Amino acid sequence: GEDVEQSLFLSVREGDSSVINCTYTDSSSTYLYWYKQEPGAGLQLLTYIFSNMDMKQDQRLTVLLNKKDKHLSLRIADTQTGDSAIYFCAESGYGGATNKLIFGTGTLLAVQP
Amino acid sequence: ETGVTQTPRHLVMGMTNKKSLKCEQHLGHNAMYWYKQSAKKPLELMFVYNFKEQTENNSVPSRFSPECPNSSHLFLHLHTLQPEDSALYLCASSQEVTQYGYTFGSGTRLTVV
C-alpha cells in the first residue's frame, strides 16, 4: 500500500533556511502537498505541486519534487519563530484519485531564536 | 477560521458514555472525512463520504459510528470508547476531485477516562 515517510524532528535557528524531506511510494500520485499544523489547530494547506513539475516557489516556500526517487522537499527561507509547527507531507493516493490523501507522520520544526 | 467548523473543541467522556462530534462546512464541498490523530502515529483516515454516501471505512471499530445527513454536515457518534481512543479527531472536506487538497477543521480533542 501507499506509504509516506518523514523525519520526525528538525531544529534550526531563526533566519536560517529549513529543509523538510519526504519520501512516498505511490508513483501514480497526481498531486503532492505540504500541510502545516500549529499547536491546538487543524492542518492548514501550505502549498501543493503537480506531479509533472520539478519545482514550485511561493514567497519563502520552495517545493522540490524528484519523481524518479519519489522524494519531495519543502524549503522555508529565512525561517521565523512563527514557522515552528508540525509539517505534513501528503500524496494523492489510489491511482491519482485526488480526493484520497495519504499523510506522512509529520516533521516537528523547532525554530530557535 | 478555515471554513470547516468542529464542535466541541474539547471533550472528556467516560467509557460508558455516548457522545457525538459535529463537523460543518459551507464551502460547497461534496466530500467529507474523519481522521484520527494520535501522538507519534500517522494521521489515520477513518471514514470518507462522497455526496453523503460512505465510500470508505478503514476497519474502524463499531464503537465509532459516522453519520452524514447532507453534504455540509458530518457527525461521529461515540459509545463505549476505550482510553486508547483518546486522540485529536479531525474533520476535513474537499471537492470530490481537486488539486487543492483538503480543508481541515481545528479538531476535537477527545479524552476517554
Describe the structure.
The complex is a heterodimer of chains A (113) and B (113). Chain A starts with a strand and ends with a strand. Chain A is mainly β and 113 residues long. In chain A, the strands form two sheets. In chain A, strands 2, 4, 5, 9, 10 and 11 form a six-stranded mixed sheet that branches. A five-stranded antiparallel sheet of chain A has the order 1-3-8-7-6, with no helix packed on it. Chain A is built from no helices and eleven strands. Chain A is globular and about 40 Å long. In chain A, a hairpin with a 5-residue loop joins strand 4 (31-37) and strand 5. Chain B is an all-beta fold and 113 residues long. Chain B contains no helices and eleven strands. In chain B, strands 2, 4, 5, 6, 9, 10 and 11 form a seven-stranded mixed sheet that branches. In chain B, a hairpin with an 8-residue loop joins strand 9 and strand 10. The model of chain B has no long low-confidence stretch (mean pLDDT 91). Classes of the chains: A mainly beta (113), B mainly beta (113). The A-B interface holds A 4, 30-31, 33, 35, 40-45, 48, 50, 88, 90, 97-101, 103-106 and B 2, 4, 6, 31, 40-43, 48, 50, 56, 90, 92, 94-107, 109.
Rounded to the nearest angstrom, the radius of gyration of chain A is 13 Å
Percent of residues in helices of chain A: under 10%
Structural class of chain A: mainly beta
Q: Please trace the helix and strand order of chain A, writing H or E for each element.
A: EEEEEEEEEEE
Contiguous runs where pLDDT drops below 50 for at least 5 residues of chain A: none
* Biggest sheet descriptor of chain A: 6 strands, mixed
Output the radius of gyration of chain B: 13 Å
Mean pLDDT of chain A: 90
Euclidean distance between termini CA atoms of chain B: 30 Å
Biggest interface pair, counts: A-B, 24 and 28 residues
Order of helices and strands of chain B: EEEEEEEEEEE
Calculate the mean pLDDT score of chain B and round it.
Answer: 91
Biggest β-sheet of chain B: count, sense, barrel? 7 strands, mixed
